[in-house]
Amino acid sequence: MKQSADVINNIVSVLQVSLPTDKDFIVLHEPSFQGNEWNYVKDCLDTGWVSSVGKYVDRFEEMLQEYTGVKRAVAVVNGTAALHICLKLVGVERNDEVLLPALTFIATANAISYCEAVPHFVDSCYKTLGLDPIKLGNYLHDIAEVKNGACYNKVTGRRIRAVVPMHTFGHPVDLDTLVEVCERFKLELIEDAAESLGSYYKGRHTGNWGCVSALSFNGNKIATTGGGGAILTNDESLGRLAKHLTTTAKIPHRWEFMHDHVGYNYRLPNLNAALGCAQMEKLPRFLEEKRALASVYQRTFSEIDEVSFFTEPDFATSNYWLNVIRLSTEWKHLRDEILQVTNDRGLMTRPVWKLLCDLPIYAYAPKMDLSVARELEKTIINIPSSSFLGAPYAKA
Amino acid sequence: MKQSADVINNIVSVLQVSLPTDKDFIVLHEPSFQGNEWNYVKDCLDTGWVSSVGKYVDRFEEMLQEYTGVKRAVAVVNGTAALHICLKLVGVERNDEVLLPALTFIATANAISYCEAVPHFVDSCYKTLGLDPIKLGNYLHDIAEVKNGACYNKVTGRRIRAVVPMHTFGHPVDLDTLVEVCERFKLELIEDAAESLGSYYKGRHTGNWGCVSALSFNGNKIATTGGGGAILTNDESLGRLAKHLTTTAKIPHRWEFMHDHVGYNYRLPNLNAALGCAQMEKLPRFLEEKRALASVYQRTFSEIDEVSFFTEPDFATSNYWLNVIRLSTEWKHLRDEILQVTNDRGLMTRPVWKLLCDLPIYAYAPKMDLSVARELEKTIINIPSSSFLGAPYAKA
User: Same domain for A195 and A113?
Assistant: First the structure.
């Protein structure tokens, strides 16, 4: 009979053997600045263009468009701001409900709160770790009705305006199935692609299915601008509106101050965009390294039974932003002990987020059965995932 | 009889003689990066600490505290975000009214809108270009009443919660008089000090009178972080809450995600804070240069009658962030022509903001008589003010 200590030691050993580094503490994700970061940032300082307009903002937006294939990318100050504006763009209003996974980062729900709308929590699925579109469809069949082209919650009486799936740790949700649910129930689709830059669903980059989508370039993401985000859309008029609303809604004029909306100061500074341009140049390499590391983890963890390494869904090519192991049912009671021991031994690990519906601030929000999300919450552990850790394993 | 063309030529000549530069186009305000900017920014890239936590964020906040004399400074992503949180911190709620000058940048009103509160526009005074506290006191005497320790608008029935003066172009409003009005009418005072870093009222730095105050470090400000801002307060518990609310309201834990408020992602990235630290080191020099330039303008413009150069109120030592000339009544009809000719000749000038109550988005908002603000709107022209323009005039 296996002992708890053996289980924990096995996990530590597999992590140690997988990670080619002599660092004393291996964090979950750290950025890599081996490209043109210095050159571009120094150019900003040398020319004085550090602030809200500048060539790197334009270039960064163009690089995002080219890379993701969307028609318009609008750089903003962070992913939360991107989500906030996405919700505004699809018409989310006070007292609307917005569907989102219970298992996501707080920003997804907060952005809904900023619109004075009500988060409505949806379960996840084991295949993607993200929102389960089939379970959502069945749930809406029971609780929702479509009237005059809009969806209403029969229980609360409120309009349900949109659904915001999040591509958890870079693994895309089943977008085709979700699009079908959205069409059936007249819901706007917003992809929270904060974690999925470099992740593809059926060969096309995430962020192309939503009416609008949000990216993040926080310091822990696969590519970073220090702090930053972007709004993606294939609707050019929404793209123009996104740029307008995030830049104080000022009507261009040589000197006059005319603003036609209550706009936002969500502009990404040129200094941060410069960093982003250099990071985007390196993104293909980061992806190779991260996928190589995931491949090593997949092999090394296959040798122990206590945990399983999470791999991309069959319809996806994922960025493996944060790698995930799941504890088997037998050993999930050891989660906190494993977190304790690994962190004590210099291997940073972390559980997934607490289900948002369990935070007192969101206890008021409606929710469906969340049994899968609850099981995932108890069993997921994130393990070190920085791209440099995969470098020795990636093709030269 | 003087001709319009002579007036305009006189103004152009005075600007040209005042400005010691051979640049083809002299902008209103450009930053100067002659200090440790590159060293500190490079340090962020070399160490990988570019994002939302890092030593430069801490150091920048300490430098702001030391410089302004407030107990707590909290660095945030920009001045608009700082104002938004200031309003939340003093308890502004949906349908409250908040008093602010009609003559200010759109951010002051937008931050009020983000709280679902109602801007209520106040007149300015000639002495400071900012909110007129005496006229405000008289107005409140007529339209407001204090009940149960709170101020109510007898006309609209709404609670009036706070007043947000803005220190226009760096010139402080008469804070002692305004504090007295706030005490009389039970209003919270928030200083919009976005433009007044380095400006003192009766020898003490602006931002010390408000319950909370907001700074901006946008690219056009006297010191810049690319984009950035700060919340200032002498109330340590409000300072802690400001930090908490602007950093997603996460309760510190080694790995758990517990958030106890609907918080904001308003963190200033370490990369931008690094720039801010270097700029703060140079701030005393920037002030010398800017005050030297203002002094030159004061002398050169004294030689023509058509305009007067605006100088600091007697109770203030101002940063002269953006220099101001005011057209005499006789020539104010030439404003747009002067703007046209000066900009065409490579001398950037700009009118003051359109009164916010005249924007369709704020037409619904209550307002008092705004005759002084209207006159200022018609007669103010901002002229080039970058610190480097004053360098040849400042003490070595």
Answer: yes
